[in-house]
Specification:
The structure is a homodimer. The first copy, chain A, is an alpha/beta fold. Chain A contains 21 helices and 18 strands.
Chain lengths: 635, 635
């Protein structure tokens, strides 16, 4: 997020926005969107933002979030989600509602999010509810719209005294003061329903005067249209940022459809180019990219467009190309922390997480979403913090491939323990399984393996082939540069450190051998637990967390973003064991052999974690594993 | 303190006292004295404690605290101060009162402290007041006594319904529940006023039943006396710890005086040894040490004495010898933090301090004594923390040599700036000045220089000879063992780190050159300020503290005990400039040349601090200084 990118580049002291809510001493800082814009305008640093619409189905949502992830890598300043009045837009429980999509973007994809809202066709109470829901979900930005009027409708805007967007802006300010950043729409060629361009400009002025922070323009096809529009706005005293809305032409049909909706004429030169190739989607897309890039260059060079807002139509390809050609798609941004920061302002202080959820960050966010304070500086004793239930984790549609795909990855029929070992091993190595499928995930990993893990692939692959089923690990790091491409994070010119960590499922017999070996390695802290809880061995203090990732930076306090916390491990342990059944075993028929095998792992394997406190020397964790495996063979 | 020694050895999880007030995640832990005793009894680890009486004069107090410091190095479990009813014992504002001496021991010498209190000869209100004062000062241990009755007195114990120590114990428990650990006195040969030994044992049982936590015995001269006494106590159901009170015989007169007061007969074998040598103090002291060591060995070996309580008579020599011969005087205790931990339970969470007061810890403790929370984990933004005024620093009699001595050290007549430079330089090198005097302190340093500083003596000496008047510094340390004899602190098997730090007064002309040079060294954070505040240059964030000392330990979060905090620096700066006048200039006549010279430093020198954030490489701070000095010569 730009939030952080900003912070890393300039530090919060250089931001002088009026509504700043910074908390000093945290690597992350909440700066309202409008203040971020002002800071970027001041430093002549153009940004981009992206617009999406809520998908109609769960599959559509799944697909959309994959595309968002790709685009989010380019560090948009924010993304927005349109408001579909016909689809329960404010119902956050409905996975395809505007509110749910916006909340997911914000909370699980860590994108600064704006939601559209309309004020007509609904009672005031409903609007109040929507605003409260948005606030509760952590959404801080609203594009305030009137809403469309369709011919023959029986809605009278006077029914709720919110006849125009300007009333809605005023209403939001009255209800929530400056909590929300409010954007309004501007019409470079006038609103389709407005009799004159001049009159429409005055309406825009009224919306801004009512309290809007910035303007996003309706789409247009010619840079001059927007530049003239900005000049006209400035002349009548509209001083806030005005952002051009860019539609990359992606197909003949969509262009026709959209320009009809927006009551816009497609300029002759564009029409002349497109009409001859209207059957050739590929050619039209290429032209669309070319046209958008050229127009955006003019806009950015004119000094009238401080950033660009893209109407993506939920597609990533064209926008991605345009951004890269414009040099706006961020590359190699310094990570502020070793895990992805939340874009939700409520988590702005969050600076420490237990390592256990490193591979399941969405589950962690979900299970801690009720916390009203997030740890920074010190994790401390978390025995009083309450983690939400695993079943609260309703965001399962993110990333979750269909059952058939999972079976192809993990095996349609499991016959023996070793079949499961093989799945773990192939996940680590990235090799294809017997179905010719790459195992891109296992239940304990939301995502593909990190580059960091790939550095210890050989060690992990061997362990998994021997039934040491690794689900989380990190190597020891003794003061690498904070800009190291693999391990770096935090402020520039600092140093980062890690203690080696290894977490795995292993058969009880192996764990017993391990327990005999561990006393020889006093520098190692361990936990060994069973699903039932009858085995719970550790040499750790019951509540003292261990920092396993930390960084030292110029002009800063020490930052320790990852800990092994014994209390949180007891929560994680339950999740880790449950995943055998919920996310794997359940794929098979209740009485099937496959189901029994997975149940066997749940019942008879133990979960182990090891921390090697000696980070200045080569880690002993591989030696311990080798000792365990050779002792097993000897016995 | 044993507090910490305990913690470092065993960790708080192994203490199972009933009234434990631990806070997990802090390197320091408050454990009530009685629970510390129980833990040491459980691990068969004998301790010692020391008794002092309040001195009659300020000089006496000064002298006493020097002796206490010597003995405190041996890590007594606690020290106690007797109650002198005739000398306003509860008036903490009076430097020679019992309360003030106890509070100073606790708060400024960091010794776990017990205060004696008597319950007779005063109204109940007065006693209540004393208890509240003790609580406010942080004293958590009280030896509850009845108080002596002198023949012909008009006090009737019934006047306040506190006729006996048992009533007093009950009263303390009623008023303050378990806040205080309460000790009572036991009489191995019976209380002098009590008709029978048996009856006196029953009185002791009543005192314990009333709520006392442990017993300290009156002095005795034969181990068997105490051993029998303990056996008799156990028989009637007294189960709490009973600690023998040991009087090292230090002179013929004091022995006679004390045994008369205690109505004790000196055993014949001791009398026979002493009487022939009664004119030879040295011989008697040697015998006293011999006799005490032998008796203590028997006591400790008997299993009846878990620790030893010494009646020091405010002398350190004999007790010191006895403790060392018994192997009870602690040596080379691992420092839990790089600065001395407070023994006051109110500061138990304190884990971070600004570096500026490193050399004036008593001033820091005094100026922060009103804080109700102390920073740990993160220092954060201290702009809301209020530091007490420098004038609150009433403990000036600690360490403060007389004016004549100071003049001999710092110069009776100052004639030029360089005379002052020379004082700083000789303080650093430890050489004698022209009066043949070693400069053991300067106004900015409470104490002799640390071993750490001695490693950079040559660099500092040269700088001071050139008018760079250093008052605080530390070298960079890149991950030395936490048991390093010079730099080590914290838990065993960890690593400690430091960023190089240098703080000094320097003439404005040099500071101007420095400002030109510093941009070449972007890894350095700096502050340059004047006494008036008209110069205040820095490249630091206004509120962000910089960790300059931190440690990484097995099974722990990262600990960062020392920070350079820009907010605290503004407070320190005032103190540092004021010290020129209050502690140095004031030694001279108002219109004297010497006074004018000191004033000149106050007005025209600037205070500078430098942090080199690059701790993995040799520090650039010496290069910066060399650049500054050579550029000055060039100009």
């Amino acid at each position: 997020m730009i939030l952080t990118k900003r912070k890393m580049r300039t530090g919060p002291m250089e931001m002088n926005g009026e509504r700043k809510e910074t908390r000093k001493g945290s690597i992350n800082t909440f700066v309202p969107l409008i203040d971020q814009m002002k800071a970027q305008i001041a430093s002549k640093d153009p940004w981009f933002s992206l617009e999406f619409f809520p998908p109609k189905t769960m599959e559509g949502a799944n697909d959309l979030f994959q595309r968002m992830k790709v685009l989010a890598q380019g560090q948009p300043l924010f993304c927005d989600v349109t408001w579909h009045p016909s689809n329960h837009p404010g119902d956050v429980e409905k996975p395809t509602s505007s509110m749910c999509v916006a909340s997911t973007m914000l909370n699980y994809l860590n994108i600064n999010t704006m939601i559209h809202m309309t004020c007509t066709h609904q009672p005031k109470m409903k609007i109040k509810e929507h605003l409260i829901t948005a606030k509760k979900e952590g959404i801080r930005n609203i594009l305030a719209l009137r809403g469309d009027f369709l011919p023959g409708e029986d809605w009278d805007p006077k029914d709720n005294n919110l006849s125009y967007a300007k009333d809605f802006v005023k209403f939001i300010r009255e209800e929530h003061d400056n909590h929300f950043v409010i954007a309004v729409a501007g019409y470079p060629v006038g609103h389709p329903e407005c009799p004159s361009y001049r009159k429409d400009l005055r309406h825009l002025k009224e919306k801004v005067d009512a309290g809007a922070d910035f303007v996003i323009s309706q789409l247009f096809f010619d840079a001059k249209t927007f530049i003239d529009f900005v000049d006209d706005c400035r002349k009548i005293g509209i001083t806030c940022p005005i952002i051009p809305g860019i539609l990359p032409i992606q197909s003949y049909d969509s262009l026709r459809h959209i320009s009809k909706l927006a009551k816009l004429e497609v300029p002759k030169n564009i029409g002349d180019t497109i009409n001859p190739i209207k059957g050739n989607d590929e050619a039209i897309r290429k032209f669309g990219i070319f046209q958008a890039v050229e127009m955006c260059k003019v806009l950015l060079n004119s000094g009238k467009a401080p950033g660009l807002h893209f109407y993506t139509l939920n597609r990533d390809y064209a926008t991605n190309c345009i951004l890269k050609k414009l040099g706006l798609f961020a590359v190699d941004i310094q990570r502020p922390l070793p895990w992805k920061l939340s874009a939700n302002y409520a988590r702005i202080d969050e600076e420490i997480r237990p390592i256990f959820w490193n591979m399941r960050p969405q589950s962690y966010i979900c299970r801690t979403s009720d916390w009203d304070k997030f740890p920074n500086g010190r994790w401390g004793n978390s025995s009083l913090a309450s983690f939400g239930k695993l079943t609260d984790y309703y965001m399962f549609y993110l990333n979750q491939p269909r059952k058939a795909e999972l079976l192809k990855m993990w095996g349609t029929h499991l016959e023996k323990e070793e079949d499961v070992w093989k799945v773990f091993q192939l996940y680590i190595t990235g090799e294809e399984n017997e179905n010719g499928i790459k195992i891109s995930m296992i239940p304990w990993n939301d995502d593909v393996l990190s580059t960091e893990t790939s550095l210890i692939t050989n060690e992990l692959s061997y362990l998994n082939s021997q039934g040491v089923l690794t689900i989380n690990s990190q190597p020891a790091i003794n003061g690498l540069s904070s800009s190291d491409p693999v391990f770096g994070w935090g402020y520039p010119n600092g140093y980062v450190y890690q203690k080696a960590y290894l977490e795995f499922f292993v058969a009880k017999e192996k764990a017993d051998i391990l327990k005999d070996i561990l006393p020889k390695y006093p520098q190692v802290n361990y936990h060994i637990v069973s699903s039932k809880g009858d085995i719970n061995d550790s040499n750790c203090d019951e509540t003292q967390p261990i920092a396993v990732t930390w960084g030292v930076f110029p002009g800063q306090e020490i930052i320790q973003p990852t800990v092994v916390d014994p209390v949180a491990f007891n929560i994680w342990k339950q999740e880790a064991f449950d995943l055998w059944k919920t996310n794997w075993g359940n794929l098979y028929q209740p009485d099937s052999e496959s189901r029994k095998i997975i149940n066997y792992f749940h019942e008879h394997y133990l979960l182990v974690n090891l921390v090697d406190n000696e980070f200045q020397k080569p880690t002993c964790l591989w030696d311990i594993m080798a000792d365990m495996l050779s002792e097993e063979k000897r016995r």
